[in-house]
Amino acid sequence: MTRTLLSLALLACACDKADRPTPAPALPEPSAATLSAPADASIAPALAVAIPHPAPSASATQAATSRALPPAASAATPVDAAAPVSAATVAPGVGMHFDAPSFAVDAPAPAACDKGAVCTFTVRVTAKDEFHVNKDYPYKLKMEDAAGGDFAGRDTQGKNVFSKSAGDFALDGEKSGVMTVRVTAASSGPMALTGTLKLSVCNAANCMLEQAQVHVTVPVR
Q1: What is residue 148's predicted lDDT score, i.e. its pLDDT?
Q2: Which of 183, 192, 190, 193 lies closest to 220, judged by CA?
Q3: Which of 121, 125, 129, 215 has its CA 20 to 30 A from that of 181?
Q4: Does domain 96-220 have CATH number 2.60.40.10?
Q5: Assign residue 191 a region: left if phi > 0, alpha if psi is -120 to 50, beta otherwise?
Q6: Where in the chain does DSSP place strands (E)?
């Protein structure tokens, strides 16, 4: 009897333990390093999505463009085709330099002159080294006919001839002399002129007869 009661008590105790729920294992507390790290690294880029700004309206874009661009020139602005040509629009004159063993010839670039007025340019002869200009020689410059150009020479051979005898050539010391040329232009623009200068230079032994080609461009307003 006693053994039977003991068996029943053990059986009841076992059934009571079986009916009790098994407690869940305790989770470990997160460390400081775990709390500082993000829970899911793949979520971080999604949180940094840029929020797009609204596009500017068409009226705002047009206003900004009109402020940035300078006002365009009016296509209806009249242009006076008969307006006089200013000195800034005239090409500069062109001179020349000729070099020989015993002398040099220079014609500085002529200054601009007005159409219908008398334009002038000069031609200088310079003797080199032991040479000097021949003061007794009849220096002469014969210009070629030029379209639109009317020469004002006083030599008896014609208006396109400039000479010492006509007062166009002047000595400038023993080493140099200058010829002055005068011409009137009938139209505006560059006027190209060419000619042949006859001259003479001497040293202690003898005098030499020489010539040089002259070519200049006169700017005419």
Answers
A1: 86
A2: 190
A3: 129
A4: yes
A5: beta
A6: 96-99, 103-107, 118-127, 132-133, 140-143, 149-151, 161-163, 169-171, 176-185, 189-202, 207-220
What is the C-alpha separation between 194 and 215, in angstroms, rounded? 4
> Rounded to an integer, what distance in angstroms lies between the CA atom of residue 18 and that of residue 89?
117
pLDDT in tens, 9-55: 555 544 454 455 555 555 555 444 444 444 444 434 433 444 444 55
Query: CA dist 204 to 45, 112, 126, 143, Å?
Result: 102, 42, 17, 32
pLDDT of residue 91: 87
What integer pLDDT is reported at residue 90 of this predicted model? Answer: 74
